[in-house]
Amino acid sequence: MGTLLFTEEQRTAHIPLWKDALVSESQREINWADTKVYVAGHRGLVGSALVRSLEAKGAGEIVGWTSGELDLRERDATIDAVNEAKPDIVIDAAARVGGIMANSTYPVDFLKDNMLIQTNIMDGAHSADVERFLFLGSSCIYPRHATQPIRESSLMTGPLEPTNQAYAMAKIAGIYYIEAFRTQYGRKWISAMPTNLYGPGDNFNLETSHVLPAFIRRFHEAKESGVKSVTLWGTGAPRREFLHVDDLADACLMLLQNYDSHETINVGWGDDLPIRELAEAVAGVVGFEGELEWDSSKPDGMPRKLLDTSRINALGWYPSIKLNAGLAATYDWYLENNAV
Questions:
Q1: Is residue 167 among the annotated active site residues?
Q2: How many domains are contained in the chain?
Q3: Exactly one of 38, 106, 142, 167 is catalytic; which is it?
Q4: Which terminus of the chain has a lower count of CB atoms within 10 Å, N or C?
């Protein structure tokens, strides 16, 4: 993989200064009432938040297909569906996702499925002459030992975290595919890299979920069964930031109106905490009073992953949902929709 790495100077040599990458005044205002938006992955964590945000904006029409209606890995079917719908905007929030265990166990599936999904959606959007497209990646695209907080220009400047390398490589390919469409066809398409997300609609399956929803389910089940301790993976030392998915959705709609650049843009809170403190916070919200034990033989993942959000902050956007309030609301949603 060493031959693929670039310095930050090489990464940004052909990219205009981001301060000059705003959408022009004549393009900036989107009349949502007259806009048809295709949200790929509309029933997932991010997609459902985007649908809520678009409905609040009064979007004219929101298009989406379930996996049973359309397998996005099927190229011809996906291109035909997008062409038939003819959306004005496409937001790609569809992906095969999972935590450390799932990524480590099924790297072929994570790489192959995500490459197929995003390529088919983008090719369909190009065929349908979609004017604006937002591709959503993940902060795991950045090098394992990137300077913190991580700037957008850190992309491809060092080795990836091995435990989610396959997923990250697919997302990196998606970023460059967006860039290729801009270069070759002049498309005003953009990509954004959110930090760790949580909120209503999350995946609480312990084999495939991310750390925060896994904590919610494990602590809830431990409380209900009366066990005195829960053992968690790793040391608890790695630091992570967490963004409520409704904040991300708000950022996405702002970017579609105000951002136009080859270079991806980070979306995050701009602050982080150790996983150990996250576990304690979730346990407090859930009401689990037992001991938290840590299995240091299990992988920690990246030691730290804090995004530099100065670029999106300069556009006037900041998150609003604080972690404790977001955790409480997410646990309430879990109780209503998942707990048995």
A1: yes
A2: 1
A3: 167
A4: C
